[in-house]
Automatic annotation (TrEMBL):
InterPro entries: Ice-binding_C (IPR013424). The keyword Signal applies. It comes from Allohahella marinimesophila. Residues 1-24 form the signal peptide. This is Secreted protein. Keywords: Signal. It comes from the Bacteria.
Length: 212
């Protein structure tokens, strides 16, 4: 069950807002969290989803644990730290308080992928690292693609005092408007043939009347 948001999770600065980007709230959208691993020798990314897909809330912590037992398909090479991950209207906060000091595995990508979903179509416009405490996370470790946020912790040491906060900007995509119904292309020749037939019939009647 989600816990109430910790006071310590909101102590970081939230001054960032990218100029020119429309801002939408993530509150009410669903979020899937996956641990992802890509080795240096493989073009493929192994992804393991948490069994919980919560709805982003203004008052609850979405993920109270990210230990290996929380994932649907635990693997031998999957060993994420036990973190608390809090998501709000425009931020993601990582809290390592429950983690045992260690170092993330080494690879092209070793981290987490967040996918935001229904009820609205969310598109992420930006993700900025606004705070990192006892964690050498860099802006270059963070990327976005459509409705996904990717955070690469590759080879980073951490302790139970590590923290990080990302500020997000996003927009709600409006579904495309359906066009007004028009005749299908295949039916256009039939309409043309019908019109020509009517013209021919009228001319035939006019000739008949003139010769009668």
């Amino acid at each position: 069950m989600p816990l109430k948001r910790l006071t310590s999770c909101v102590l970081f600065s939230t001054a960032f807002l990218s100029a020119g980007l429309s801002q939408a709230s993530l509150i009410g959208s669903t979020v899937q969290l996956e641990a992802a691993i890509q080795s240096y020798s493989s073009p493929l990314i192994e992804r393991y989803a948490l069994s919980l897909n919560p709805t982003v809330s203004a008052s609850q912590i979405e993920f109270t644990s990210t230990s290996v037992g929380d994932f649907e398909t635990p693997k031998a090479n999957l060993n994420p730290p036990n973190m608390v991950v809090d998501i709000g209207a425009d931020f993601v906060h990582f809290d390592f308080s429950n983690a045992i000091a260690d170092t993330f595995s080494s690879g092209k990508f070793v981290g987490f992928i967040f996918t935001f979903g229904s009820p609205e179509l969310i598109k992420l416009n930006g993700a900025k690292l606004v705070a990192a405490e006892r964690l050498r996370l860099r802006q270059s470790d963070i990327s976005i693609f459509e409705n996904q946020l990717l955070v690469n912790f590759n080879d980073l040491p951490f302790s139970n005092q590590s923290r990080a906060r990302l500020q997000l900007s996003s927009e709600v995509l409006t579904p495309p408007t359906l066009p007004t119904e028009v005749p299908a292309p295949a039916s256009l020749p039939l309409l043309l043939i019908g019109a020509l037939s009517m013209i021919a019939l009228r001319r035939r009647r006019a000739v008949t009347a003139a010769t009668a």
